[in-house]
Amino acid sequence: MNDYNTLIKGKMVYGENKIIIKSPFNNIEIGSVPALTKKDIDSVYDYAKKAFYSWKELSPQERIEYINKFKKEFISNRDLIARIMALEIAKPIKACYSEFDRTIEYIDQTIECYKKEFINPDIVKENIHGIKGKEGYFFREPLGVVLAISPFNYPLNLSLAKIIPALLVGNTVVFKPATQGSIVGTLIGKCFFKTKLPHSVLNVVTGKGSEIGDYIIENNNVNMISFTGGVDVGKKIASKKSMIPLVLELGGKDAGIVLEDVDIKEVAKEILKGALDYSGQRCTAIKLVYVHEKIADKLINQLKELIKGLKIGSPFDDVDITPLISQSSLKWAKSLIDDAVKKGAKVVCGNISDENILFPTLIDKVKHSMLIFDEEQFAPIIPIVRYKEIDWVIKYFNNSKFGLQGSIFSNDEDKAWEIAKKLNSGTININKSSSRGPDIFPFSGIKDSGFGVQGIKWALESMTRIKGIVKNKI
Ligand code: G3H
Predict the structure, then answer these.
(1) Closest CA to 162 of 107, 219, 100
(2) What are the residues whose beta carbons fall under 8 Å from the beta carbon of 325, sequence distance 6 or more?
(3) Residues lining ligand 1, judged by CB closer than 6 Å?
């Protein structure tokens, strides 16, 4: 077992206490990360604030060079990081590599977008819009210290999708990885350390939620928070922080709506992928399927067949389903199944567990009185709701407390488009399952799914403010 140190105040430190990280796969201790204290947090913010004044004065090119040096170092650790990720969050190793490569692409695209759209000011000239005697120059300025908090399910992508734009535009960063995923967080910090990033520009704070969870949010030196994680914590952040920009990506209950005119085989494949990738532990996973009653039996049979072919097991093997992140996640998922069964739903297959693994579970005859109709399972469960009228579906889709994404499957694109326009959600996908990517798309949610926009250009925007200088003719 390794003790991992973390980057704070320009140094890799161990801290007086540590947190042991175990693998959700076999419960074996993988390593430890420092359990930082409130005192550490105070001084990290003081240093990050001081570092901001010099970091923002570097030229864009100088900051880009630091990010490129980081990228090089990061790539040279690809295997190590992917393997630790697979151990730490039990994501299939193939998906860990994909996440790594997606993140490299994300870094390149963010640099390109920054160069093209953020370095030069927007200029509003006299002869445009009939403005007389005025010329406005509108610059993008950094905000100060950005607090980036990432979730367990994307320890690389959703960490660097916050850190990279924040640093590029001239902010300094305090980064808090999820506890499960914090070894990966320390490795990100180490790669920055090796590239000799100036002192305190990035700080990776690891620690117990009970000790520093609220404390990192409350500090007065925080100028912006970008958070991805649970609804409760998101709401807590929103209630504790006013007058600073927040981007909150919280839960989702993305529904897939299947019209009666589809190619059932194709749609079943897409639903399976959308619902079960990383064992359903994605905010954009399909978490409810509305299917027209005329084709419901066929779709369910098709899904059942496909589920039979799924491989379940170790994240290091070529499998589809791996253990859930914790016993409490498994308990929650099972409580939703039990509630549905008690209220009349039918388990078609699955509902078997082994340690942290939940076998992919297909549930038919789900009704809106059941908890699983509106609660986010974050587990490999596909609840099926049979419907007669699309207006009924639209009503219930829009009644959901979440509003991240949704998908419509139909061979009639015009019809799908009309329905999409009536659905109240961040994004509606036609004939594909929901997803955040490609990363150049804006990504946002409404209601309990959060607010603020992510995606390359929007992440950069969210971490800057506009500063105008207006020349007036005298
Ligand atoms: O879990 C939340 C992520 O933002 C989902 O991202 O759609 O790329 O899986 P994804």
Answers:
(1) 107
(2) 24, 89, 90, 152, 153, 180, 281, 356
(3) 153-154, 249, 282-284, 435-437
- pLDDT at position 130 is 80
For residue 95, the model assigns a pLDDT of 98
Tell me the C-alpha to C-alpha distance, in Å, between residue 296 and each of 300, 301, 376: 6, 9, 22
pLDDT in tens, 19-49: 999 999 999 999 999 999 999 999 999 999 9
Instruction: For residues 2 and 19, give the distance between their C-alpha atoms in angstroms, rounded to a whole number.
Output: 12
Residue 139, burial from CB neighbour count under 10 angstroms (0-12, 13-18, 19+): middle
Q: Give the strand order in the sheet containing 381-387.
A: 346-349, 361-364, 381-387, 288-292, 255-258, 405-409, 427-430
E strands within 255-366? 255-258, 288-292, 346-349, 353-354, 357-358, 361-364
Q: Which atom of ligand 1 is nearest to the CA of 151?
A: 1
Instruction: Identify the bridge partners of residue 364 per DSSP, sorted by sequence position.
Output: 346
Of 76, 75, 95, the closest CA to residue 85 belongs to 95
Q: Write the single-letter amino acid at 323.
A: P
pTM of the model: 0.97
Give the residue, by CA position, lying nearest to ligand 1 atom 2.
Answer: 283
Low-confidence ranges of the chain (pLDDT < 70): none
Smallest CA-to-CA distance from 449 within 404, 400, 398, 405 is with 404
- Supply 8's token pair: 């704070």
Q: Phi and psi at residue 220, in whole multiples of 5°?
A: -70, -15
Q: At what angle do helices 78-89 and 93-117 cross, to 10 degrees?
A: 120
Q: Which helix (H) or strand (E) holds 188?
A: helix 182-194
DSSP 43-106: HHHHHHHHHHHHHTTS-HHHHHHHHHHHHHHHHHTHHHHHHHHHHHH---HHHHHHHHHHHHHH
Total residues found in the chain within this entry: 474
Q: Which residues sit opposite 175 in a β-bridge?
A: 148, 204
How far away, in angstroms, is 153 Cα from ligand 1 center? 8
pLDDT at 128: 77
Q: What separation in Å is there between the alpha carbon of 261 and the centre of ligand 1?
A: 29
Sign for the pseudo-dihedral over CA of 41, 157, 456, 114: positive
**Residue among 435, 453, 456 to mutate when testing ligand 1 (max atoms within 8 A of CB):** 435
Return the DSSP state at 320. Answer: S
- Residues sharing a CB contact under 8 Å with residue 184, sequence separation 6 or more, in sequence order: 81, 84, 85, 88, 155, 156, 159, 177
